[in-house]
């Protein structure tokens, strides 16, 4: 009996192992349902960071239409934008990438470094019409990894009613000094000064960059004197009560909600809030973020790139290229960028946008002057620099360190 | 406990000896089919454990021992670097504050959750009208999704428009930057986490209290013991096994608390509310350029900490069982 039991145990163990192996393989093929493995050759997958658009939206319909034009079916999956880069990396690790990936522009260089994306040489995408400063965010080592679908950037929204009550003429706000003086007047009039987002994420860095670049500082030297003046500007606004303490936890959305309450004179926010601004119920205007000495500061470019990830089956690229070309064709760009409240990446479409809506003029100018965060060949160094920069902003604004010490610590952490 | 285990030990023996004389030829086959059944029942559990516990744990250890960059993560050719990730994590300037915050967060939360939970459990153990209703209401924090309660807390504690600061203002106290001052952020997340953890302690301790026979209290009352003495001499000692498991589970839950801190402060400002859990996430996912290796290393430190306390618990329980 003993031996039979032992034999049984052995068989059972073998069965178990086989079953485990079976389940494991079943799992790995099962997990491919969002990628192209499970899809047949006539279905192309598209991942985008626009979960706000459902199946009935113009965006989803445009994707389907472009698929039909290329002779294939489209399977679309929408992700939260902060999830998308990790999802894309994981999918690539399992050779299960989407056919077309639409991804936030500073992530492009990271994905390119990981070898996830094809270059425009490989996939034959035409990027000749795209503005050079926008395309730069998707370039590293002389190669281009996709084409922008639209761009946005930051500007200063102002509340005309509040400024009038405080006796501020917006035409006098030209540099940091005059802006700070305007904030002082607003506070004296019993209103609130300015809101922005200094949260401890990429959003915080994105919002700080116009001031950072406006001071003349470079991302390669976080501890420069100019950088210290930029951080001191924010720090003093908080200290004097021109900006609320909650900026430390504000996302750009919560910062906008504060501005939309009607109490604040200024809000640093993006192109994408234009539609909400019209709904806010007060008269508003937009000026570019001023630089320290008077000109307009470079603001960072936001917005997504359409990319074609590397596939095991290279014969899929031709169809993917057709889909992307359709998505970024002049007519479709105009529609898409209007829905997204973005500025188009080509001069031709920008002209049409301004013709249709004159309010977009300052934003088109701002986008033309804007600068990619990963430009200047920073590429994959940018994420590390950005993390240290938002940490320094948080340390200084919360009073944990002086702006000078915080930036010095940041620079030494970047190495 | 020991009584029931003895019974269950005895039962199969008696069955086997009872069955053997009546049907000797079948006795040989029966254990075989029983064995089959045993394996069949064991297989799903084994599969489940291997797939959802052993393999992820193995992957996490593997991640923490290799130098992953985004490129080697995708290509799968990350070089083995031994304990380099652990060394980097240990020498990181964030390590010491994160360790301190984890210890403070865990211990303060545990003490208050247990004390408040026990006080409420004793309170609700005295039957009175609406006792059940009130107890049910106390469970609400436990039932709410964490994202809801954490967001609500962060609105309430907002420096400028939060209800807490306006309440403080009403009684003449100046505003406190709950979430944005380095000195307060840890305290704020601790308060929120205590609020969330109390119901769990209340429920477990309350059910523990109900298993204490009322006759003991009656006897003590006859002997002239006052309320405090009854609590000190009867309730507390008899509740010890339940307390131990409550505290251990509470410890494991609190060690890994992530959502509340991340939603309320993101571990900031300036790392002032960073614990190992948020640090691990920050390393692995909080940046566009993920550092999977160090992130996994920090995660493993947490697993080890939870494991150590689990072993301590088993040790203590065994000692209690022996005595």
UniProtKB/TrEMBL annotation, chain A:
PROSITE patterns the record matches: PROKAR_LIPOPROTEIN
Q: Which UniProt keywords apply?
A: Signal, Sugar transport, Transport
Which SUPFAM superfamilies does this one have? Periplasmic binding protein-like II (SSF53850)
Q: Which Pfam families match?
A: SBP_bac_8
Signal sequence region: 1-26
Keyword Transport found: yes
Q: Which family does it belong to?
A: Belongs to the bacterial solute-binding protein 1 family.
Q: What is this protein called?
A: Multiple sugar transport system substrate-binding protein
Recorded source organism is Streptomyces pseudovenezuelae
From TrEMBL, chain B:
Where the record annotates domain ABC transmembrane type-1, the positions are 99-313
Which spans does this entry mark as compositional bias, Basic residues?
Answer: 1-13
Which PROSITE patterns would you find in this protein's record? ABC_TM1
UniProt entry tagged with the keyword Oxidoreductase: no
- Where on the tree of life does the source sit, at the highest rank? Bacteria
Keywords for the protein's UniProt record, in alphabetical order: Cell membrane, Membrane, Sugar transport, Transmembrane, Transmembrane helix, Transport
Task: Classify the main location.
Answer: membrane
Q: Which Pfam families match?
A: BPD_transp_1
**For the region Disordered, what residue ranges are annotated?**
1-29
Localization annotation: Cell membrane
Identify its membrane topology class. Multi-pass membrane protein
Q: Which InterPro entries match?
A: MetI-like, MetI-like_sf
* Family, similarity comment: Belongs to the binding-protein-dependent transport system permease family.
- Its recorded name reads Multiple sugar transport system permease protein
Q: Which organism is it from?
A: Streptomyces pseudovenezuelae
